[in-house]
Amino acid sequence: MYYGKINSRGYVTNVSDEHDAGYNESLALPEAATTITGFRYKYVDSAWTDGFSGVTDENFMGAYATLQQGWELADIKIAIVPKIKAEAAEQIQALNWKVERAAEVDAATGSTTLAAVYTERAAIRTASNVKETALEALTTMDEIDSFNPTDF
Predict the structure, then answer these.
(1) Helix, strand, or coil here: 28?
(2) Is the same domain home to 74 and 137?
(3) 124 is a domain residue
(4) Contact indicator for 152, 130 with CB cutoff of 8 Å
(5) What is the separation of C-alpha 14 from the centre of its chain, rounded to a whole number of angstroms?
(6) Are the beta carbons of 88 and 124 closer than 8 angstroms?
(7) 71 and 46 in a common domain
(8) For residue range 60-114, what is the model confidence (pLDDT) as tens digits?
């Protein structure tokens, strides 16, 4: 009998002939599983399914490697989003003095300079959203490597 450790996506990431009681995601694999074919399985709704239906045992490891690359890209993207948000927050905070000054000028003169500052802040938020959308569209590590999350 073999046991599989699963990731948050339900796929087997490690196959062992010993159950790891300290690791919650270590589950008994189907009887047909081997140390290699155990990676075929995906745990969905408390049951094992073939995560590579239609792919032969000889070829599924290539498909598994491709899947892992996708997971890596997704995880990296998740880690970059807070950098984009932090840059937007920093840029917006840098405008706080303008907000205070514009409010004073508007109060003293009846002008509407505060609206222009709020427009600047809205533009930063829009640029941040555009940057996140651009990040989501990236599909390779080279694209991720050349992506600058703070140049907006």
Answers:
(1) strand
(2) yes
(3) yes
(4) yes
(5) 22
(6) yes
(7) no
(8) 999 999 999 999 999 999 999 999 999 999 999 999 999 999 999 999 999 999 9
60-94 helix and 113-137 helix, angle to the nearest 10 degrees: 170
Residue 21 reports pLDDT greater than 90: no
**Please, what is the end-to-end C-alpha distance for the chain in angstroms?**
54
> In total, how many domains does the chain have?
2
With tokens 């840098």, the residue in question is 94
Examine residue 151 and state whether it is found in any structural domain, yes or no: no
> Nearest-CA neighbor of 121 among 149, 84, 101, 95?
95
Both structure tokens of 19:
């159950």
The Cα–Cα gap between 6 and 142 comes to: 28
> Residue 20: inside a domain, yes or no?
yes
Range of the domain at 16: 3-50
